[in-house]
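ping. complex inputs:
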Amino acid sequence: MSMAELATVTERLDKNHYETDEERSHIEIDQAVAKATGAGPLLVRICPAHVYSMLADGTIGILYAACLECGTCRAVAPPGVLTWHYPRSGLGVAYREG
Amino acid sequence: MAGEGETPDVDFDVIVIGAGVSGCVTAYQLAVAGHSVLLAERGEKPGSKNLSGGIFYCRVMEEVFPGFVTEAPIERRITRNCLSFLSPTSFVNVDYRDERLSQSVTAVSVLRAKLDEWLAGRCEEAGVTLMPGVKVDGLVRNGDQIVGIKAGDDELRAHVVVAADGVNSFICQDAGIRKKEPLKHLAVGVKSVIRLPRAVIEDRFNLTGDEGAAYAVVGDCTNGTGGGGFLYTNTDSLSIGVVLRLDDLVERGGTSSDLHDRFLLHPAIAPFLAGGELLEYGCHLIAEGGQAMVHDLTRPGLVVVGDAAGFTLNTGFTVRGMDLAAGSAIAAAKAIDVALKRGDFSQASLDAYKVELEKSFVGQDMRTYARAPAFLETPRMYGAYGLLLSDIFHGIYNLDAQPRRRLLATGLSALKKSPLKIVHLVKDMVAGVRAL
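pong. complex structure:
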């Protein structure tokens, strides 16, 4: 397999099936605590789904619809940075293989 | 004990949270024993939130579903186990193939979306009320006693609640059983499922029929991060990915998706995948703490099973979770059945679960491998050993028209080049013998 065949993470996630919660994000971030603890770059690199990104203004962007619900960010984030729960009933990623 | 007229009003005898392996097995056993059971699953259907590597050491399932291997939607029977050391330029394998493994069916590859849907179907046939698309938000208490669940605006009551809600168990958190886990107890698995024609898989992995291969890879696949790579054959796809210990991932600065890609693109691995089509990219958190991570298993009216309880084992050779999930579920169902018959849902009554566990392979294996996590934390496992092996084999096979040296001399010269010292080898061998 080549990198071209593997594609980017975002392109890969397009092949997955999601029931996106259009109304509510299941991830919230306290930008002030995130900034103070320098959590941004850590979240960006540990999330396999690339949910987090550093924005130009130094805050952290959240693409919650891409979330694969593994909980890695919840485990590694410094206290107070994240409020992370599973998406609401029946919503979020729906694995077809698993 | 609830006396006459004191039986509290319940909607079900038992509510099981989570329709994975442990939840389904618990629910099924209790329904077969004649109890009313609700199985609540947050996914749109059972399996849709679940992901495993996944090799299922499934012999335990025969106890619950006789004929499991022929009836259940398994992918392949694992008859080839490869233990592999990967370096940037080499791939050293212990390749163990045995027909006896096919006859006794010790291990099968599975895809959870398919397996869990089947398991939940068996539960429904046994009379379990399956509620998919229901996320349980918390527990309902009466004093210290847990008496039900909250889901949205609804409350449902039961004599016993079973937390089978996986490694992130919010229910255990709600019950005060778990706090934040140390990062060395957790790993993230990042996995791709890649479609390939059946015949190509059989040719590429030297398999016939429904035989399957399982590779457990250490070394360069994680760029030195604690963890490893895996490659399993399904019927017409491959499951491939990396497992990264979170403490090391945080410290060493790796990017989880890059480490996954790096493994798939490694020159020794990429040919296995050539021409394949990506079907799904997923990830899942893995409990890696072994015995040290097993939490309290009961509260008044509550029992914890499977990943939620920390029942997973990485022995270096085998990575086990689903079999322990099923084993813990069997033990839990026995204890809950007795509690229901006696009408005693106190913690002391439900603690019979711990006794059942200790009698089973689950409790015993967790103890046997209690030292494995510390052993596998040794950074040498993920770098230096793979390079040493590759240099030894290079010395043996690289006939460069120079006079040959004896094996011992070749080995010692490779060791001299390596940062490893004989004292490390002895120490790790002793630790390995004691841990595994």
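Chain A has a mean pLDDT of 96.
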